[in-house]
From TrEMBL:
Its main location: membrane. Keywords: Cell membrane, Ion transport, Membrane, Transmembrane, Transmembrane helix, Transport. This is TrkH family potassium uptake protein. InterPro entries: Cat_transpt. GO terms for biological process: metal ion transport. The chain crosses the membrane at residues 12-36, 42-64, 76-98, 126-150, 162-181, 193-213, 234-253, 314-334, 354-372, 411-431. GO terms for molecular function: monoatomic cation transmembrane transporter activity. It comes from Paenibacillus montanisoli.
Length: 450
């Protein structure tokens, strides 16, 4: 019976259903009294909001994670980070690997859609590599943080240091943005070791698994004719450009504002961390509510762009922005083809980039409108824009208004976080029938544009 239902669903709907079931299970676990600290109560809407935020690896919270959840509750969140970060099909692959089962065509199709890939070949190898890299990076980071937290006096016991380090490492690598410290990373605003290692984890989780796979293959040096794919080149360059531009823009904007009185090196480090984390992570070393309006707008744009495809982050994605920027440059030059790194970009990719971007902007506008209507003039446009962009980009940064929002506004953010997690490609796939349409070509006629 179950197999019949599964086969009737399209792969896209099957994956979305799996994520919805995951959200329901996580919500149910967070509603259990064992998940709370003594004397704490959690409403259903707050449990649902936390579950969606954890599964979508966003980091927006309506309650304080460290003050609300027990060790069991925090462990549930750790599982949710992994579930949402590396993807349901990656965890499914891990299960199949343990049982020694073969991964069939249906499973490969599901992996392809979940990881936003365009071909079936190499998926099983990619899943093995993703699992190995994820566990290795998180284990190494946990050990490093645990030793540092304990030796530096940040944790009273080594056991406490290990659990905090495990939670923080997974939260940073999956770009979840949750913390047990109660103030994100404000207490580490002058601790450059914690900041540097955290930024490294954020970037590794945000650049995308295909990029990491190619970097590993390049580092091995076994293939003498190896060359990076266009996807990796575009992703890495776009990611680096956005980090550098964000770094300088935030520093120049805040040098006379929230950074006033700080040493230059601390200003630089905080600016760099803000630029890195605003892409998808949500952890912060500065008080976001104290930032200049221009910085809030800039960070909103960075959150909207988000991370790379097939990564831990959400947003409209770096490759989408790179293609749109290249099309604009080509149009300005009078070129009929869009080229990047000596390769022509397919018309289909150009078309999808503009459609996904336009629909993302529309979702952002609808989200802002819904929250403004729900809040009835309690918050200004910049704060609402920031919150909505953070939800859609699965970033998690906030000016501090999340917990005070009305339930209807929280539901709006829940929907945006979920859509941001599954991505625009999977979101569009929900509304397609999958049936092949007749290839009909109509008479072409010119319009006046612009």
């Amino acid at each position: 019976m179950l197999r019949k239902i599964i086969r009737k669903l399209s792969p896209a709907r099957l994956i979305v259903t799996a994520y919805l079931i995951g959200v329901i299970v996580i919500t149910g676990l967070l509603m259990l009294p064992i998940s709370w600290k003594p004397g704490v109560r959690l409403s259903f809407i707050d449990a649902l909001f936390t579950a969606v935020s954890a599964v979508s690896v966003t980091g927006l919270t309506t309650v304080s994670t460290g003050d609300t959840f027990s060790v069991f509750g925090a462990s549930v969140l750790i599982f949710a980070f992994q579930f949402g970060g590396i993807g349901i099909m990656t965890l499914g692959s891990f299960y199949w690997f343990l049982l020694g089962e073969n991964i069939g065509l249906l499973e490969r199709k599901l992996i392809m859609i979940d990881q936003n890939r365009n071909q079936l070949s190499g998926l099983v190898h990619l899943m093995r590599l993703v699992l190995l890299l994820t566990l290795s990076i998180e284990l190494l980071a946990t050990i490093t943080f645990a030793v540092y937290f304990y030796s530096s006096g940040y944790s009273d016991t080594f056991g406490h240091a290990i659990f905090n380090s495990l939670f923080h490492s997974i939260s940073a690598f999956t770009n979840a943005g949750f913390d047990l410290f109660g103030d994100s990373l404000l207490r580490y605003t002058d601790d450059y070791f914690v900041q540097s290692l955290t930024m490294m984890l954020i970037v590794l989780g945000a650049v995308g698994f295909p990029v990491l796979a190619e970097v590993v293959e390049w580092a091995r040096g076994k293939n003498k004719r190896f060359r990076f794919s266009l996807f990796t080149k575009v992703t890495m360059v776009t990611h680096a450009i956005l980090i550098v531009l964000g770094f300088f823009a935030i520093w120049l904007t805040e040098i006379g504002n929230s950074f006033a009185g700080m040493p230059l090196h601390q200003q630089m480090m905080n600016s760099l961390f803000a630029s890195v984390t605003s892409r998808s992570a949500g952890l912060t070393t500065i008080d976001v509510s104290s930032l200049h309006q221009a910085s809030l707008l800039l960070i909103s744009v960075l959150m909207f762009i988000g991370a790379s495809p097939s990564s831990m982050g959400g947003g409209v994605r770096t490759t989408t922005i790179a293609v749109i920027a290249s099309v604009m440059v080509s149009f300005a030059r009078g070129d009929k083809e869009t080229r990047m790194f000596g390769r022509s970009i397919s018309k289909d990719d150009v078309y999808k980039s503009f459609v996904f971007f336009a629909m993302s902007v529309l979702l952002l506008i609808v989200g802002i409108f819904a929250v403004l209507m729900a809040e009835e003039h309690r918050y200004d446009l910049s704060a609402v824009l920031f919150e909505v962009a953070s939800a859609f980009g699965t970033c998690g940064l906030s000016t501090g208004i999340t917990g005070a929002l009305h339930d209807s506004a929280k539901i709006t953010l829940i929907l945006l976080m979920f859509i941001g997690r599954i991505g625009m490609f999977l979101f569009f796939s929900l509304f397609t029938s999958g049936k092949k349409k007749p290839d009909i070509k109509y008479i072409e006629e010119k319009l006046i544009i612009g």
